Structure formats: structure tokens, C-alpha cells
Amino acid sequence: MDKKRAFTLVELLVVIAIIALLMAILTPALRRAREQGRQAACASNLHQWGLIFTMYTGDHDGRFMAGIDEDWSTARYSWIHTLIPYYDNPEIRLCPSAKRTRNQGGKPPLAAWDMTESNPGELLFLKDEKYKFGSYAINWWVNDSDISIGAGLNKEDKWRRTGQKNPHTIPVLADGGFMLARPRHTDDPPPYDGLFAWGDGARGMDRVCTDRHHGGVNVLFMHWTPRKVGLKELWTLKWNRSFDVRGPYTGPAAEWPEWMRRYKDYP
Q1: Which domain holds residue 149?
Q2: What kind and span of H or E run contains 221?
Q3: Is residue 236 part of a domain?
Q4: Which of 192, 226, 227 has the alpha carbon at shortest distance from 109?
């Protein structure tokens, strides 16, 4: 009768080595697959926001909401508050890659914003806690308001309403580190990823120029279709009426901070 043969130590070590090699090969692929899933879920969120904005602007003669600058103390005119009648799930305000606020352990750039973190005591504008957080930023330039804040923020540059020419170039909502962003073509790129400049109008691009999805962010455009946009590509979009899409940060002569140099260039 044949005796049962056990694994030798060498054979066992070979099996362990093969398993370790397979794990080393498969782990990056699994990470990429997970990130692709999160990016797809984020794009799905923005697609839902496209439907919500379509309903709201359809009910208001094509016009957007006034914007939070009308009333910071209550946020009655912010996209978050104004659109509540059009959505019942606040979770769609969270990119799956940035679901936790800094108080909850989220780390920039993969952190959601929380209005009570940004300026405690002043911006406690919504009684319901579930409406105080998110990880998307509205393009301030689409808001229908006559208020201008800060140097270089000309109210005449606002889009205000739908029906614009080339809507596929006009951002409405994007992955962001705060609830709104005011990008201008003269904005310098952030010196590091995840920078948040509270109240600094000269750094409007910082809030959306953050590596949320492997070199890019998801953006919902005014034709209500989202897509992934490369970080350097952000300077080629028509954020406002006077935005120069061939400004100082487009083309081969652009000088990018070190952390952005590895990303794809756009003409």
C-alpha cells in the first residue's frame, strides 16, 4: 500500500512564493478595478445631478439658483438647499472616493467638505445635519445673482441660465473640496494636492484641481453629461464668459507645480 506523501518544506515555500507573486500581480489590478468602480459611481451621481438641474432650470425659465453669496447665514440660495425638493437622498452629494469629512478621518484630497468644519459658528445654516456635507462643488459662475465678491469676480461673466452656446464646454458641478468654486484663467495651480484656500478668491481653481480619480476629476457640463477631466484640462474649460481657454496654464509653455508635472498636458 502506498504511503500518503506530505509536502516538503521546499514545496510549501514554493507554493507560498507563487501565491505571493500572484498577489503582487493582482493587487494593483484589483485597486484599479475598485477605483474604476468608484469613478463610475461618481459619474452616476453627477448624471443624477444633471437630471435634477434639468428639472430645476425647467421650472425656472432656464435660470439657475441665485447662489449662496446672497445669504451665507442661511444658505437659502445655495444649490444644496435650493435643490432639496428635487432630491431625497443626500448621499448623491458624496463622491464614492471622498465620502468622509476631515472630522470623520477623511484626508485631502479624498475628503468630503463639511460646512461646520469650514467656519464653525457662522455657517450653521441648515438645521438638518445630513445637508451640511458633500464632495462636489458648483461652478459659482452659473449662479443667477448680481452679487460680486472680490477683485476680478465680475458679475457680467456669469452664465446665469441654460441655453448657452457650446454647453459641453461649460462646467456646472465637479468633484471639489468645497461646496462652490470660482475658477478664473489666471488662477495658479495649487502648490500641493488637496489645498483648500478658504475665502481666497484668487485661488478659485484649488477647490476643483484635486486628484480625485487618478489624474482627473469628474465634471458635469451644461449639456447635462458628466465626464472625467484631466487636472491640467481644467484650464481649457469655459468656466465663465471671459475665461481664456488659451491662458497662461495651457500649452507646452505652462509651468506646473512639481506634483502636477506627471499628468497629461492639454494644448
Answers
A1: 10-260
A2: strand 216-221
A3: yes
A4: 192
